[in-house]
Amino acid sequence: MKAAVLQFPGSNCDRDMAVALRQAGADVTVVWHKDNGLPDGVDLVAVPGGFSFGDYLRCGAIAANSPICKALVAHAERGGYVLGVCNGFQVLTETGLLPGALMRNMNLKYICKSVELKVETAESAFTEGYGAGDVITVPIAHHDGNYFADEATLASLRDADGIAFTYLDNPNGSVADIAGILSENRRVLGMMPHPERAADPAQGGTDGAALFRTLVGQLANA
Amino acid sequence: MKAKVTVMLKQGVLDPQGEAVRHALGALGFDGVEGVRQGKVIELDLADGTSEATVTEMCEKLLANTVIESYRIEID
């Protein structure tokens, strides 16, 4: 199973993402933002956390228009798998691959702590290692994680079982406590919490490991 | 030629920064500030003859996120 981790100026979770995917058994290539294409045969593209392009203009906006993101969108449109975490989630909403937008946290503070998430659906390659309703503990570290979508978008997310994770105790003002969402074809996941920071006992928690294990396992068997 | 693009959060989208500014003004003793909205201004130096339609395209593709933001274009 081949995975690519995108790297922008200002990415800072690219290495953690690569380590988590490798530990789960993926063959990982890190890809620079100016590259025009992804490596041949990539099954999964991971967009890591960080502060791509210094969060200039809006978080993720400049990265979303970089050459590699054109290849990312083409990959998703071919039915390829995409995982966007934190800044990666912001990039995915900016490309339009996922609906809604991420705004400044309601309390205006940068928040870095572990939070409890409820797994809202186990019906995806990302979440089937959990049970629907499971509560997992995963760190967040963001200033702009306040998910916004209008009523119509929220209704279609709910109808499509597209809400992947919610916060038990909403830290940032996200509408409907949303922490992560799936695309309509369930192959694109964007989430603000960092599963790659809870993937090894040395990190103080392993609740994120199942996401990588089942995702890599699924794609290896596909 | 110059164009000025003003980007604001849409009405109905909560603006916590504007709210914080409103509170701070109240704390300074400015009574009667009923609402504050904070946005950004982007000034563009453009080749003469650039059409407003082109600037609109810039706003739609990059300068504003129309999910949460509205924009206004002024051309000098």
UniProtKB/TrEMBL annotation, chain A:
The keyword Thylakoid does not apply. InterPro entries: Class_I_gatase-like, PRibForGlyAmidine_synth_PurQ. One of its GO terms (biological process) is 'de novo' IMP biosynthetic process. Pathway: Purine metabolism; IMP biosynthesis via de novo pathway; 5-amino-1-(5-phospho-D-ribosyl)imidazole from N(2)-formyl-N(1)-(5-phospho-D-ribosyl)glycinamide: step 1/2. One of its GO terms (cellular component) is cytoplasm. Coiled coil: none annotated. The gene is purQ. This is Phosphoribosylformylglycinamidine synthase subunit PurQ. Keywords: ATP-binding, Cytoplasm, Glutamine amidotransferase, Hydrolase, Ligase, Nucleotide-binding, Purine biosynthesis. Transmembrane segments: none annotated. It catalyses: N(2)-formyl-N(1)-(5-phospho-beta-D-ribosyl)glycinamide + L-glutamine + ATP + H2O = 2-formamido-N(1)-(5-O-phospho-beta-D-ribosyl)acetamidine + L-glutamate + ADP + phosphate + H(+); L-glutamine + H2O = L-glutamate + NH4(+). Its EC number is 6.3.5.3, 3.5.1.2. The active site is at C86 (nucleophile), H194, E196. Pfam families: GATase_5. Its main location: cytoplasm. Part of the FGAM synthase complex composed of 1 PurL, 1 PurQ and 2 PurS subunits. GO terms for molecular function: ATP binding; glutaminase activity; phosphoribosylformylglycinamidine synthase activity. The lineage of its organism: Bacteria, Pseudomonadati, Pseudomonadota, Alphaproteobacteria, Rhodobacterales. Part of the phosphoribosylformylglycinamidine synthase complex involved in the purines biosynthetic pathway. Catalyzes the ATP-dependent conversion of formylglycinamide ribonucleotide (FGAR) and glutamine to yield formylglycinamidine ribonucleotide (FGAM) and glutamate. The FGAM synthase complex is composed of three subunits. PurQ produces an ammonia molecule by converting glutamine to glutamate. PurL transfers the ammonia molecule to FGAR to form FGAM in an ATP-dependent manner. It is found in: Cytoplasm.
From TrEMBL, chain B:
Pfam families: PurS (PF02700). This is Phosphoribosylformylglycinamidine synthase subunit PurS. It comes from the Bacteria. Its EC number is 6.3.5.3. It catalyses: N(2)-formyl-N(1)-(5-phospho-beta-D-ribosyl)glycinamide + L-glutamine + ATP + H2O = 2-formamido-N(1)-(5-O-phospho-beta-D-ribosyl)acetamidine + L-glutamate + ADP + phosphate + H(+). Its main location: cytoplasm. It comes from Salibaculum griseiflavum. Part of the phosphoribosylformylglycinamidine synthase complex involved in the purines biosynthetic pathway. Catalyzes the ATP-dependent conversion of formylglycinamide ribonucleotide (FGAR) and glutamine to yield formylglycinamidine ribonucleotide (FGAM) and glutamate. The FGAM synthase complex is composed of three subunits. PurQ produces an ammonia molecule by converting glutamine to glutamate. PurL transfers the ammonia molecule to FGAR to form FGAM in an ATP-dependent manner. SUPFAM superfamilies: PurS-like (SSF82697). Pathway: Purine metabolism; IMP biosynthesis via de novo pathway; 5-amino-1-(5-phospho-D-ribosyl)imidazole from N(2)-formyl-N(1)-(5-phospho-D-ribosyl)glycinamide: step 1/2. The gene is purS. GO terms for molecular function: ATP binding; phosphoribosylformylglycinamidine synthase activity. GO terms for biological process: 'de novo' IMP biosynthetic process. The keyword Glycoprotein does not apply. It is found in: Cytoplasm. Part of the FGAM synthase complex composed of 1 PurL, 1 PurQ and 2 PurS subunits. Keywords: ATP-binding, Cytoplasm, Ligase, Nucleotide-binding, Purine biosynthesis. InterPro entries: PurS (IPR003850), PurS-like_sf (IPR036604). Gene3D superfamilies: Phosphoribosylformylglycinamidine synthase subunit PurS. NCBIfam families: phosphoribosylformylglycinamidine synthase subunit PurS, PRK05974.1. GO terms for cellular component: cytoplasm. Belongs to the PurS family.
